[in-house]
Structure formats: C-alpha cells, structure tokens
C-alpha cells in the first residue's frame, strides 16, 4: 500500500496491515514467470507446427495458414478443457496458458461446464461467453483503436 | 519430482534456440531438399531458356536482406520466390516493395511475380525441380506459374 494512503488509516488499521504483511504468502513471481514462459512457448511451438502442417499438406500460404491454425488450437484446448487436462496445465502455467488463443477456448468451455446444471438455454447458452465475452469485446475494440491509429498515421503521418 | 522434467524441457528449449537457422531448415518439416535451393537457384537442366531467371537470382543473392532465392521464368512471366532472414522480417513489406520495384526495372518486358511467402517458395522450388528432372513445355510451366500466382494473391 502506498505511504500516502497508509497515513489516512487508523492506528488499528495500520497495525492490521503490518500483521497481514508479515503472514501473507509470498508469490513466487520469478518461478511463475518461468513456468508461463515455458508453457506459453510450448503452446506457440505446437501452433507453429500446426501452421506448417497446413502449409505443407494443404494450399495455405504463410498469411492464410493463420486462420485454420487458430481454429485448431482453440478446438484442441476446448477438448482438453472438457477432459479436465487444460485445468491442470492452467494451474501449473498460469498466464502461460491463459494468454495464448487456447485460453479463449478454455474460458468458453469452462463457463459452459460450470453452468450446465442451470439448463442448456439459460445456463450454458447465456453463460458460455460470460468470460470470453470480454475477450471478444476488448479484442474488437483494441483492433478498432489500432486500425484508427494506423489509418491516421498513414493518412497524415505519411508512413 | 515434478521439477526434473521442467529442467529438461527448459534445457531442450534453450538448446534448440541456439541452433543455426540453416540447420533448422534442414530438420524442418519440408524434407531435405525442398527448402534448400540449388546453388544456382534456377532450373538450369530444363530445355526452356532460364537466362532472366539466372540474372534475377544472381541479383537477389547479392542482397544481404535475402537469405535464399528460387526463380523460374517462362514466356513473359518471371516467378521469384525468396526468403527473408528472420530478424529482417520486421522490414518485410519494405523489402518486398523494393525487390518488386527493382525486378520490374531490371526486366521491363516481363510480368514479375515475387513473393517472400514460405509456401510460394516451396511451390516454386517444386516447380524448379520438376523442370530440371522432367522436360516440361511452356504451357505446363505457365499453368504451374499461374497456379502459384493465384495462390500468392490469396487473402483468406
């Protein structure tokens, strides 16, 4: 907590804050980063292999192979989530499994599984994109902003 | 218990990251000869005149921002496929534009089709090998070039 804010706390609150700080479990940040890097890297390597597979065996170029690769990766993560394997990977890797596109498939299916007891329409149907919805919304919005910046830079910046 | 495989995986990844690009090419999915161009970069064994292709390949090989090149020509069409070194890919668009422009200047009578796409490189390499091994006529080569050109323009 910032020193400025701590000054506003009552003595009891300040005491509690110190008490909490002493007993709080320290997060192994370096280890978590290493794990995320490793698993994220493995996921990306698999994605690259799938991309090469589509390029080698089908008429996809480097540019067009991205679409089926993303679809395949999302599909695979959905299957793994259904089988309960992805959850274990996520527990180990943290952001390394959530940040790649496979995390999107995991978010959709885990929400669907969680709400299946509420029925298919009002349970699965309405809650499936509970978590993935924000990914779609902010992804689309970020793409719009980037496109806007690019357009402005090209039109007026002469890039 | 859990830690040992993590260490093994990390060591493997670091070790594979140190590999030279050329070695990676040899070990990659494309097979042994598909990725690596012949020393000339053109289909010399074919009956069709590959003079313009050889000149284009010579020029491109001298450039530092191009790693490997395959060129085939037939009639008034010149198909150029090349690879850009990994770290130079940041300037991919610029390099592509520059190569296209220079080749157009060098071969004014030709319709230049150039691409830095790996798939186009493989396809051109295949065509070049086919031209060297079998005696393909103009029509067949043109049809193949047309097919590769269509593929290079594919957006979706």
Automatic annotation (TrEMBL), chain A:
<feature type="transmembrane region" description="Helical">
    <location>
        <begin position="133"/>
        <end position="153"/>
    </location>
</feature>
<dbReference type="InterPro" id="IPR014203">
    <property type="entry name" value="Spore_V_AC"/>
</dbReference>
<protein>
    <submittedName>
        <fullName>Stage V sporulation protein AC</fullName>
    </submittedName>
</protein>
<keyword id="KW-0812">Transmembrane</keyword>
<feature type="transmembrane region" description="Helical">
    <location>
        <begin position="69"/>
        <end position="86"/>
    </location>
</feature>
<feature type="transmembrane region" description="Helical">
    <location>
        <begin position="36"/>
        <end position="57"/>
    </location>
</feature>
<keyword id="KW-0472">Membrane</keyword>
<dbReference type="InterPro" id="IPR005562">
    <property type="entry name" value="SpoVA"/>
</dbReference>
<dbReference type="Pfam" id="PF03862">
    <property type="entry name" value="SpoVAC_SpoVAEB"/>
</dbReference>
<keyword id="KW-1133">Transmembrane helix</keyword>
